Amino acid sequence: MTDQLPTTFSPADIEARWYQHWEEKGLFRPERPDAEPFTIVNPPPNVTGSLHIGHALDNTLQDIVVRYERLRGKDALWVVGTDHAGIATQMVVERQMEERQDKRTNYSREDFVDKVWEWKHESGGTITRQLRRLGCSMDWSREQFTMDEHFTKAVLKTFVDLYNDGLIYRDKRLVNWDPKLKTAISDLEVETQDLKGSFWHFKYPLEDGVTLADGRDYIEVATTRPETMLADMAVAVHPTDERYASVVGKHVVLPITGRKVPIVADEHADPELGSGAVKITPGHDFNDFEVGKRAGIAAADMLNMLDGEANVCQTSDGLVPEEFLGLHRFKRAKEDGGTPGARELVIERLKEQGFLIPHIAKTKKGEEQELDAEPRTIATPFGDRGGVVIEPWLTDQWYVDAEKLAAKPIEQVKSGEIEIIPQSWEKTFFNWMENIQPWCVSRQLWWGHRIPAWFDDQGEVYVALSEEEAQSKAGAGVTLTQDPDVLDTWFSSALWPFATLGWPNETDLLEKHFPNNLLISGFDILFFWDARMMMMGQYNMGQAPWPKLYLHGLVRAADGAKMSKSKGNVVDPLGLIDEFGADALRFFMAAMESQGRDIKMDNERVKGYRNFATKLWNATRFCQSNGIGASRTLAAPEARLAANQWIIGEVQQTVEALDAAMADLRFDAAANTIYQFTWSRFCDWYLELIKPLLVKDDDQPPAPPAIIAETREVAGWALDQILVMLHPFMPFITEELWAAQGNLNGTDRSTYPLITAKWPNPRAEVSKEATDAIDWTIEFTTNARAARNELGIAPGTKLRAVVPDPSPMAMKVFAGNGAAAIERLSKVGPFMMIGEIGENNVPGPTPKPAMEITAGDDVILVDLAGVIDVAEEKARLEKAMAASIKEAKTLEGRLGNANFVERAKPEAVEKAKADFAHHSAEAERLTAALARLG
RNA sequence: GGGCGUAUAGCUCAGGGGUAGAGCACUGUAUUGACAUUGCAGGGGUCCCAAGUUCAAAUCUUGGUACGCCCA
Asked: Does nucleic acid strand B have an atom less than 7 angstroms from the CB of A427?
């Protein structure tokens, strides 16, 4: 801790020091056994991850809330930990192996998993270090990991319970298969992209001499995936389609494979699309799977023509010609050294055999042109991790009956038991939850929670918490093999709000901190995580995991584009912290976070908040050099001086506004409130108002010692209130200044650090007279400065003034210590108060030429003799007069409207009348002033 | 195809039935005195368009346009 503040604020010099101090002293979670709990859980970042700008936003918002609640005295707990992130982590370790010409399959499963653990211990701490740099006040003493022993216990119990309740089941159906990662993934992990593709038309010859009504001996089908015809099992037409009515129930013989397949009637076939007939590949298309089932084909009998890497393999009926086996599903020859993919070869063979119907297109010149296929935009599914096209693939997987689990959360959001902020997300939430599909939770990976299911030789499954238990279910002597698959990462993170607190054990922590109070997350994980926590919270705990869900947007690049590594427009939050300080970055995030909108990155704005920190630093230095140190009371000190009373009142209003903003989770409003107060009120006015009392000025008599003492006390108190209120947003600089203020006047703050200080509670009575006096002073000063600027009067020129008919307010301002402040701020003075001066002490004549400055009800005449050309002052007055006349006319028109006077709210009419009176009087006054100038 | 969001100053954004605000940028000006990472002052807006409701619409309603996102 420094004795004297350095002249410039350097964030890097204080951040690490304070963070370490807080963490070492256990200040992120001081013991408060009797305090009201406040709990949030951090969305566990991937253990492989590093801090990106979205984390910075998400965690800043959470830290603001947690620090705020901690300052308000609550037993604030911010649960932190990391997610094992099955696919991502396994990919990272495999990639490193590849760099060493090594691969996963060179190891046994156990050895590979050991290697991942090793990697986790060595490199898994990056993101947690980075969260510390951001200043996040999480409870690191209880850092969690989704594969910790106790967490794993929670995962297994949940699986087994869901299974026993019939909410998890094994099913053979099409899944989204990632041929690169060779695992199933859930619907949510599939991202659809529009790609340019083609639409091919084929002839499928009719069997047994059957023809269509128009005599054709074939059915035309169209497809965007010609290669799948190798596993076609039917052709579907719409039941009401007259063109095909005669052939429903008949067969076609497929080209290439020679497979004989039925023509079925099914509503899936769209008569408007293409020929109205569609080829059906139940094993490789989600719609066709349903058509196939309706046509009576059991899942187990559906033909599969692709292996796990999506290369062609033999179908169970053995009809795929040799030359296709092993081919890539759709890679093109020129991309692969001359080997055609299955798609290309299918087209080639169909064309050779006359089964391809060319597409007739017109060239730009209007000439007809024959193409193999019709160009088309195709919505293509990609795996979000592997980045390759997803293949619908027929496998056995574990599914969670999400529809049943979703029922209660839907109700809870509808009833308001769970509030989603901003509310506009509710519709999206309902739309997804009400149409939710079974959740595929098994993954063909090695890293993750192994599924607690064992199979015997007959394929019978035993789900149990342990192998022993499974064995006892199966009976002694039965050989059991555990399911090799692991669970979807999101299955375990869905348990985060309670498994991190000890569940399934009944711990005190769980008792006290579940349900949590709030969840803050990006909207991008609303379905992945938030919704699933609701389901699992309800299932395991019988209630919602939190009553409030706050969803924030994305941080976008400066041009509004989504940040992505591939675009190279990613902004590194650590770089911003290095450049501007963590406090500035945090304040930026808060100030930009308005509900329901994404944040565009703006380095200039971050810089602006760095400047704000510097401003506060320098204001504190000013206080220190004038003997203003730490306050010793939470309540506002007794104050007599108007400026002191005024700032106390301003603090009070600021706390109220801040509390209101925080209650509504309006981070932008909260940040702006404290920003404006600190800079525009405290620095720009209050410190300037009290300067004459503190700084020696030969022209002014020194202020009474009692007033000086009071001022020091109030100023120190007000600064402390700023530090407390600003602390959630800018924890580092505020803690540094808090300590420095304590050091200055020997207030021991080592046992009362800012992070666990008390939230302001001024409870002060402020006289309206005092605040009015300061408002008067500010108004006069502002008007005088504007007039001086407009007339081009040199800033240093001091101007004598006369107040011909001072109001009681003016009398009060000048009778107190206001005169010195006004003279200093406006460079106007000394003032002659004519009303105050007796007959025998008449000052000189009213100054001429004079400029008229108003404040409240007063008109002050400022002597311009020898200072300025009269014409310029006339121009100024004329401009002001024109403005007043315009305003008055508008108001006069409104007041002349009978409808307005009769129907408008009385307050509106009153206000219009008052404004009209004011502006007409002003216009009159200015007319008179112009006349006086001649 | 369905849903959602956004449109306000040059830029990034608040606000909101009674003629508009912030930060940055811009212009003028000030430098021994907390701070030039500063002070003071100033210019700058048909609040996307149209219709409706209303005494009054930038604000509410409806329709449109543009951009963005999500789902199918």
From this structure: yes
